[in-house]
Amino acid sequence: MSMANSLTPGAAKTGGASVSAADPRLIKILLHTPLSGPVSFLLLAEDRGYLREHGLSVAFTEGKGAAGIVPQVRSPTFDAGYGDMTALIEVIANSAPNQGPVAIYTTFNSVPFTVAVPADGPVREPKDLEGGALSGYSVDAALLTFDMFARATGIDASTVEIIRSPETMGVQVRDMLNGNGVRGVFGFVNTIVAMAAEFGIDGRKDLRFLTYAHYLPDMYGNGLFVTRELYERDKPGLKGMVHAFNRALRDTVRDPDVAIDALMRRAPAAMREVDRTRLVGTMRSDMGNVEGARIGVGDMDNARLARMIDLVVSAKKLPRTPSVGEVFDRSFLPPDEERIRDMAEQSWQ
Fold it and tell me: Rounded to two decimals, what is the model's pTM?
C-alpha cells in the first residue's frame, strides 16, 4: 500500500523468533504513524512477551495519519488499527448497522488536535483564522475535523483556505514562522513540538496552540479498533491483546525509557530524545485527561461518547447515528484494579 510501510512478520521479531504469517493468531495492525514514541508502548508488549502469553503475535504496519488510516483497516489486509475515533465513527455511520469496525481500547481520552500559530502573531482566538490560510497533511486528523472545530468556535469555514501540503509538520511550521503566508498549521500538539524542534524552534515558546479539546471537550482521540470480522471471530484473542497492551502501557508509565528502548530496537535511526519527548507529551496530555482517574485509561464514558457521536454525525451529515455499543465495546478491558488511573499525576523527567 502506498500509504504505509509494512513491518513484515519475518522482520518483526519477538524474543528472537520470527512470527509466521501462517499463524492463525497473527493480528495485523495498522498504526497511525511511522514507528515513533507515541506507539512505542505497543512495541513493548511484543518485546516483553505479553502478547505471546495470550497465544498472539502481531505485525505492525506504519501508517500516515490517525484519521487517514481508519478506512484502510479492512479484512484481509488489516485486522486492527490504532487511529482516530472521529474517523471511526464516520466509517461506522456509513456502514450497515453492526457491520462496521469496533473500538475496544481507547487510550487518548483527550483529543490532541490543534492549529499551531505564531506566538507573536495576530491570531489570538479561533475567529482570527477567518480570511487566512491553514496548511496540513491531506490526511491529518485536525485538518479533517476542522469543520467540527469551526462549528464549535463560530468560525466561518468558507473564509478559510485549506492548503494540503506534502511537507512535514516541522517544515510547515518553519515556513509559517518565516512568513510564507499561512496563519496556522494543523497537527497534534506534541508531534508539532517535536518536529519543529528539529529546526531549532521551541514550540512551547514560539507557537500558540488553538487546541480542539478546549472547544470540543467531548471528543476522544486515538484508540485501538478492530474489523467486524476479527471482532466476531476471536473475542478471547482480542481480550488478550487489550490486556497485553494495557500491561505494556503500565510499564511505560512507570518508565518511558523501556518503551523507547523497544522503539530503538526496531527503528535505530529514530531520534531517541525527540521520540521520548513525544511519548511523554502524549501520555501527559492526550492520555492524561482527568476522566482516566475515574474510569481508567482505555475506557470511555457512555454519555460523553454519545455526545461525540451526535456531534460527528451532525457536523459530517452522516446517514445514521450509531449506538454507543456499536462504536465501543468495553468487555475486552482489563479489570478495574489493572487499569491506569494516575497518568495525570506522573512527573516524568
Answer: 0.88
